[in-house]
Amino acid sequence: MRGCIVMAVLLSTALASFAGDHRDRPHRRVLQVFDANGKAVGAFKYAGGGPGVFMTVNGAVVFVPVLRREAGGTGNETSYSATQFEWGRYFINEFYTADCSGPPLVSEDTGPRASFVLRRGPEATVYVAPAANSQLLSVSSYLVGTNGQCQRYATPATKAGWPIESSYVITKDHPEPLSIHY
User: Fold this and answer.
1) Is residue 147 classed exposed, middle or buried when 0-12, 13-18 and 19+ CB atoms within 10 A define those classes?
2) What confidence tens digit (pLDDT) does each residue in 65-104 have?
3) For residue 178, which of 65, 70, 83 has the smallest C-alpha distance?
4) Predicted TM-score of the model (pTM)
């Protein structure tokens, strides 16, 4: 009998410890991406092997890369900021037109909806693919790097990717430099 009472007390004590208010537990802090105005954009995450933030663009959840801002130099002698970041870009940008104008081919499939960031000078635009399967599309030109010269394919190339459903100039609402902190 005494054993049953001891067991009942131990069991009720154990159950009471699980029923505690979750607010008693320490709050976990999450790194956030902030724009130049100090406005929080979202939680700093990793997806597809790179850093960035998930956000909703024209009703679609996309992953937007965030990279360290270049501080000086060029090529192999480029230096990067210790504290400032910018909206990501991709090394190769392919276009449907022969002169690298217009929207790019969306070839990046990281995130719930495929999207692509293209930088033209200080302006970064997020291009969002439709909620559909990728397809084979014809591209006629490409840019390599951020300051690359437009190159034409000798004959249009067929690449897997998505056309553009919508676009969003992210630097308009979330200007750079970005910062990452709690």
Assistant:
1) exposed
2) 999 998 888 878 889 999 999 998 777 889 999 999 988 9
3) 83
4) 0.80
What are the DSSP calls for 49-62, one per residue?
A: TEEEEEEEETTEEE
Tokens of 175: 């200007």
Q: Per-residue DSSP letters for the chain?
A: -HHHHHHHHHHHHHHHHHTS-GGGSPPPP--EEE-TTS-EEEEEEEETTEEEEEEEETTEEEEEEEEEEEEE--GGG-EEEEEEEEE---SEEEESSTTS-SPBPB----SSS-EEEEEETTEEEEEE--SS--EEEEEEEEEESSSPPPEEEEEEEEEEEB--SEEEEHHHHSPSPBEEE-
Q: Which residues pair with 127 in a beta bridge?
A: 116, 167
Query: Residue 49 phi/psi, 5° resolution?
Result: 90, 5
Backbone angles phi, psi at 8, to 5 degrees: -65, -40
- By DSSP bridging, strand 40-47 and strand 151-161 are unpaired
